[in-house]
Design brief:
single chain, 60 residues, alpha+beta, 3-stranded antiparallel beta sheet
Length: 60
């Protein structure tokens, strides 16, 4: 699979989620105190991401 969510613990001991495509990190979330909260973040992104609007703030 070329893309995946990855849950990891940062140096501060918080759980974070990375979204990777072909080993490249596309984005990372804020830190969460529990793994369950990190999993909830993934579920929210999967649920709400496909319908999220695109906001173009470029000057083009």
């Amino acid at each position: 699979m070329a893309h995946k969510f990855e849950i990891y613990k940062d140096k501060a001991g918080e759980y974070r989620v990375r979204f990777k495509y072909n080993s490249e990190t596309i984005f990372s979330t804020e830190g969460y105190a529990s793994k369950a909260s990190a999993k909830n973040a993934i579920e929210s992104i999967q649920k709400n991401g496909p319908t999220a609007p695109t906001e173009d703030n470029s000057d083009a």
